[in-house]
Amino acid sequence: MRAAAWCASIRWFGLGGLLTLLAACASPPSLVGHQADAFSRTGRFAVTATEPGAPSQAVQGGFAWLDEGGRLTLDLANPLGSILARVQVTPGRAVLTRSNGQVEQAANADALVEQVVGVPVPVSYLRYWMRGQVSDSARVQRRDAQGHALQFEQQGWTVELSRFDDQGPGLLQMQRNEGARTLKVRLIVNTR
Fold it and tell me: Do the Cβ atoms of 144 and 126 come closer than 8 Å?
């Protein structure tokens, strides 16, 4: 019986190691900026849309984010880390280039994501939320001892930020209700 228990322990240990390896591979490589104020993060994302009487729609994977003020670059990867698409945003233009070369365009990042995914994701606000910043229009409900906004509402989104490091939050959870449909976005940032 001991040998069987030992073998089972080895299998669970091996499975745990495999899952850890896959989780580590989920994020694409970091994007490197050329400006002094470049802001770069990598991590994993999950987007879920639910409606009563319909199956949930969900997509998940990894991301690499580079914000250089006037230019935003976002790589989206499958759960194993292979790049599926790159989003590039400049003033007045957002372009998504898929790994197969197919290109889609819109006037801004929010419109592009909704056009491609079918779910609105507040990319324009994420530029600030990824840094732990909120605008004056946000209704802040909770702050921590360091003054970080932990929970707030902005443009119809309820946002919770936590696990801060020196660059911003390590966990961003966003929810929006649109009639009977509920949208949830979760970003887990690889912190240093």
Answer: no
Check which CATH number belongs to the domain holding 42 and give it: 2.50.20.10
Position 46, amino acid: A
For residue 184, the enclosing domain spans 2-189
- What pLDDT score was predicted for residue 153? 94
How is residue 112 written in tokens? Answer: 């592009």
Range list of β-strands (E), 68-119: 72-77, 83-90, 93-98, 103-106
Q: How crowded is residue 11: how many other Cβ atoms within 10 Å of its Cβ?
A: 10
Number of domains in the chain: 1
Residues β-bridged to residue 43? 63, 189
pTM for the full model? Answer: 0.80
Q: Residue 88: name the closest of 105, 102, 101 by CA.
A: 105
Q: If we measure between CA atoms, which residue out of 126, 131, 173, 127 comes closest to residue 148?
A: 131
